[in-house]
Amino acid sequence: MALEVLSFVKAAWIKPLWKLLAQLTGERKKELDRLRDDFVDPETLRGLCLYIEPFLQDRNPADTRQDDLLTAARQSAFERINEFFQGGLPLEKDGRHQMFILSDAGMGKTSLLLMIKLMHLTSFWPKGHTCALFKLGDDTLQQVKALPNKGETVLLLDALDEDPQAWKRIRDRLLELLRASEDFRRVLISSRTQFFPEMEPDRYGRPEIKVLAGYHCPVLYLSPFTDTQVQEFIVRKLPLRWHHWLLLRAGRIRQERAKADCLLKHMQDLRMRPMLLQHIDKLLAKDCKQDWNAYTVYEALVEEWLDREVRKLREQHQGRRVPERADLFRACLRVAERMQRQGTRVIAEEELEQLISADANIAWLEKFELGGRSLLNRNSERAFRFSHYTIQEFLLAWGIVHKQLAGQEPLRATDQLVRFVDLAAGITNHTKQLNFIGFDPIRYVQRYGITYPWLEPSDGCPILPEIMILPGGRFRMGDIQGKGGAVHEVELDSFAIGRYPVTFAEYDLFCEAVGRAKPKDEGWGRAQRPVINVSWEDAAAYCQWLSQITGRVYRLPREAEWEYACRAGSETAWCFGDDEARLGEYAWYKKNSGGTTHAVGEKKANAWGLHDMHGNVWEWCADWYDADYYAVSPKNNPEGPESGSARVIRGGSWCYSQMSGRAANRNGEALGNRSNVLGFRVALSLQAK
Asked: Are strands 683-684 and 678-679 parallel, antiparallel or unpaired?
């Protein structure tokens, strides 16, 4: 006899769900009120008729190394969840009934769990099965332990990345949660992808959590919305019905749809985030032709919301002075800052009173029209919370960029907060305002596909070379302009490389520390000029010393890494293009050097923030030199020939022509040679945490 296939979630249930929620009474009504307190108000789903069922997939959609997106096994979320919920408790408690759902911020993790819970709450679920939904926090283990009838209960745990108990102890927290929930029928736990531990493939190629040996928890990722889903959402958000024609409003709605399409086009991949789509109407007043990124989108969103609140306050309080948008912006910032410093998503009424005593404008937040369209809500205990954690993070980023934070203690760096700051003003200008303990820059680079400055100092060395972490990727290596050197495709893992060539100031410290003779500077000066008169062996010894005092693997860059870093995404003769007339903006070479080296960083950087990749000094690479190596070079992470008589040098120098500084130009030099044209920059091997 075939087992009965049970249905726990269905897209067809979404439409009648809202009416049933309004009819809840007794204990179920109390449960709904608790959800409003602990989570975003279900009414913000706009009657739930706007909810678009997402897709789930078995690979990280942000993985830029993924060759074939079709192999991600994408499946409708409700279909996949119904499959997971089938059957009883497994015989072995090895994590197979405890699933993780991961995604970026604003992709709908909480909404998905909330939708599952609401379908249970409105009695759509099979009889005899129950569901519990909690926001992860300090008291989660006690809440889970107190639940009855665990064997027939589906447990939903939201926002691992916001759980203070997981900060800086993610593995221990995961083990606590898995052990506490092992007796439940099924468990779903959500988290931001960037916060989650590193994954590795199991024997079938499916992702598995590296730090949880012995557990085989399934891991799925929320897929970004497709263009079809985005358009479906816009049609629902801006419906065109028969009565709009009678009321002569059809033309205006069609114009709004057209402007929404324009806006979404310029938002690029941000348009795939359900959280931002939910507020698209707030952005329609903005110029759709501006350059959008995550920071400017959130800035426009918050500004439109506060402008609307200012208009309402003026209507309601005529004759009184009503604060301007800027005043309310800072008031919201004070609330966000208090929440962040306390590691919470809410601020109690008595705490709000303390803030009001310091800034009277905060009192006006209590007069806001709170509810479905507001970015600020209140629970039944009168505690404030922002409608989404990214709103809180954006406000903090705005405060950092505009130097408006009240406290002096650095804020805990989250991936989204760092991204906001970086997009707005560059993260290197604001590192002192963030606490990077627990932040993983390598995973950040791999996720966003961008460069990132290495910010981790070492007490063992007062001057460390400034490092840029580069995202792994593919590029065409060789002389694309056809002047020699076979063009071939290379694929590299993420790595880090010096922002500048190593300077005399940095190298002299090494010499003093190990009792080594300092190289000559030719009378040109030391300090921030690139070190010269160093052999390949001298450069390798410096890297070995750095490795010893920092505990990290410093080395010389491989030749492929050097060219990848130099090109910075370009395929032209130089990093900036093919126009030789512009070379003087980026390089010290024969025509403009005046016969000496110059301090590093005086010329423009390439697109990845690296200076002096062209000219100033030739730079030693790790590889042996072979003029014919490209013909046999492997595609992935080539390390050069196994042996040779010379090492690769790249980049040209102060006394060489413009052609020597081309991105593809390569040369070889005996590894023991020293001269006033030879220097180097360091590289750093990386492993994501």
From this structure: unpaired
CA 208, CA 580: separation in Å to the nearest integer?
A: 50
Q: pLDDT band for position 47 (50/70/90)?
A: very low
- Residues 6 or more apart whose CB falls under 8 angstroms from that of 279 comprise 301, 375
CB 487 within 8 A of CB 633: no
H helices, E strands: number in the chain: 21, 24
Tell me which amino acid residue 75 is.
Q
Structure tokens at 28: 């179920």
Nearest CA among 215, 102, 90, 88 for reference residue 153 = 88
Domain finish residue from 190, 207, 222: 222
Q: What is the pLDDT of residues 61-112, one digit of tens each?
A: 766 443 444 445 789 999 999 999 987 777 788 888 999 999 877 788 888 9
Burial class (CB in 10 A: 0-12, 13-18, 19+), 297: buried
- What 8-state DSSP symbol labels residue 44? G
CA distance 47 to 160: 27
Give residue 664's domain range: 452-684
- In the numeric block, which tokens belong to residue 188? 């779903």
Instruction: Return d(Cα 374, Cα 232) in angstroms, integer.
Output: 23
CATH at 36: 3.40.50
CATH number of the domain that residue 461 is part of: 3.90.1580.10
Six-digit token string for 155: 């447990």
244 and 381 together in one domain: no
Average model confidence (pLDDT) across the chain: 86
The first and second tokens of residue 573, run together, are 């003769």
Rg (CA), the chain: 29
Assess contact for 162 and 105: CB atoms under 8 A.
no
> Which H/E stretch holds residue 253?
helix 250-267
> Can you give the pLDDT at residue 451?
84
- State the Cα–Cα distance between residues 599 and 38, nearest whole angstrom: 56
CA dist 409 and 446 (Å) reads 29
Provide the token pair at 541: 């010894």
Whether 604 contacts 588, CB under 8 Å: no
Strands 207-209 and 199-201: antiparallel
Choose among 609, 166, 108, 162: nearest CA to 416: 162
Q: Convert the pLDDT of each residue in 409-421 to its tens digit.
A: 999 998 889 999 9
Which two three-digit tokens encode residue 156?
């939903």
| Residue whose tokens read 């910010």 | 455
The pair of structure tokens assigned to 41 is 């108000």
Considering Cα of 468, then 400, then 290, then 234, what sign does the dihedral take?
Answer: positive
- Spatial distance between the Cα atoms of 277 and 269, rounded to a whole number of angstroms: 12
β-strands 452-453, 467-470 pairing: antiparallel
How far is it, in rounded angstroms, from Cα 461 to Cα 449?
30
For residues 95 and 277, give the distance between their C-alpha atoms in angstroms, rounded to a whole number.
35
Distance (Å, whole) CA 326 – CA 320: 17
If we measure between CA atoms, which residue out of 186, 190, 198 comes closest to residue 220? 190
CB distance 538 to 508 below 8 Å? no
Are residues 651 and 502 located together in one domain of the fold?
A: yes
The residue-averaged pLDDT of 254-282 equals 75
Taking alpha carbons only, the member of 174, 108, 196, 62 closest to residue 390 is: 108
On whether residue 2 sits in a domain, the answer given is no
Percent of the chain with pLDDT over 90: 48
Strand (E) or helix (H) holding 33: helix 26-38
Does 6 reside within a domain? no
Cα–Cα dist 486/222, whole Å: 42
